[in-house]
Write a structure and sequence with these properties.
- The chain has about 160 residues and is of the alpha/beta class.
- The protein has one domain: CinA-like (Maf protein), CATH 3.90.950.20.
- Helix content is about 45%, strand content about 20%.
- It has a 5-stranded mixed beta sheet with strand order 2-1-3-4-5, sandwiched between helices.
- α1 packs parallel to α6.
- It is globular and about 45 Å long.
Length: about 160
C-alpha cells in the first residue's frame, strides 16, 4: 500500500475510535510523525512526537532507564518497551508507537547488523505491549521508510485488536 493511502487509513481508524496517537522515534528521526501529519485533519488524531535519538533524550523525555541501555542497548525490545510506555504516559494519546534501530550505513555489528529495528506499540487500558524485531534491507532511507510503514501498519493492528 502506498504511504499516503496507509496514513489516510490510519487516520480514519483513529478517528473512528476517537483515539489520539503519539510517536517515540529514534532511527526514523521524525519520519513517522511527518507521515502522520501529512494528511489534512491529522490534528484530530495526532497528539505529539518524541524524537529521541540520543541516549540522554530517551532517558530524559521518555523515562528509559540507564540500566536498560547499559544492559540491552538502545536497539532492544526492552528499550522500545520503555519508550512506548513513556510516550503514552507523557502525552494525551491513547495509542503509542516507538522505534529504535540501525539505519546505516554504519553502526551495525554482528549481533545487530544495519537494518535491525525494534518497534513497539501500546494502547491505554491494554496491558500487553506489542513488540516486533525486523531486519530491513536497503540503504539508510529505505530502512527508515520501511520502519515508518511497519509502524503505521502496527498502529492499525493494535486499533483493530
Amino acid at each position: 500500500m502506498e504511504m499516503s493511502a496507509l496514513v489516510k487509513q490510519v487516520g480514519s481508524v483513529l478517528n473512528q475510535h476517537k483515539t489520539m496517537v503519539v510517536t517515540a522515534e529514534s532511527c526514523t528521526g521524525g519520519m513517522i510523525a511527518e507521515a502522520l501529519t501529512s494528511v489534512a485533519g491529522s490534528s484530530s488524531w495526532f497528539d505529539r512526537a518524541y524524537i529521541t535519538y540520543s541516549y540522554e533524550s530517551k532517558k530524559e523525555m521518555l523515562g528509559v532507564h540507564e540500566t536498560t541501555i547499559q544492559h540491552h542497548g538502545s536497539v532492544s525490545r526492552e528499550c522500545v518497551t520503555e519508550m512506548v510506555l513513556g510516550a503514552l504516559q507523557q502525552s494525551h494519546a491513547q495509542v503509542s508507537v516507538a522505534c529504535s534501530g540501525i539505519a546505516g550505513p554504519g553502526g551495525g555489528s554482528a549481533d545487530k547488523p544495519v537494518g535491525t529495528v525494534w518497534l513497539a506499540w501500546a494502547k491505554q487500558g491494554h496491558p500487553d505491549i506489542v513488540t516486533k524485531l525486523v531486519h530491513f534491507a536497503g540503504d539508510r532511507e529505505a530502512v527508515r521508510e520501511q520502519t515508518t510503514i511497519a509502524a503505521l501498519e502496527g498502529i492499525l493492528a493494535i486499533l483493530k485488536a
